[in-house]
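Figure 3 (text version): structure tokens given as input.
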């Protein structure tokens, strides 16, 4: 949605912390394999990483999270 994109910076990073590290490890392992269902698994993992990035961005000190985010 345009509202989401307008609330974010041009580049958003995913912190490799205790919450995202397992997701990043799963993503790495899934990319290294070529198995049935890989595309679906990658789609879901990327969904989870996007949510983690959004949470990190809007939880930072001084963040001006839009009202619809809460």
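Below: residues designed for each position.
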């Amino acid at each position: 949605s345009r509202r989401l994109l307008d609330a974010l910076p041009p580049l958003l990073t995913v912190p490799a912390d205790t919450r995202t590290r397992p997701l990043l490890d799963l993503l790495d392992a899934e990319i290294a394999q070529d198995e049935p269902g890989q595309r679906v698994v990658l789609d879901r993992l990327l969904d989870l990483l996007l949510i983690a990035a959004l949470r990190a961005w809007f939880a930072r000190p001084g963040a001006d999270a839009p009202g619809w985010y809460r």
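The first helix runs from residue 2 to 7.
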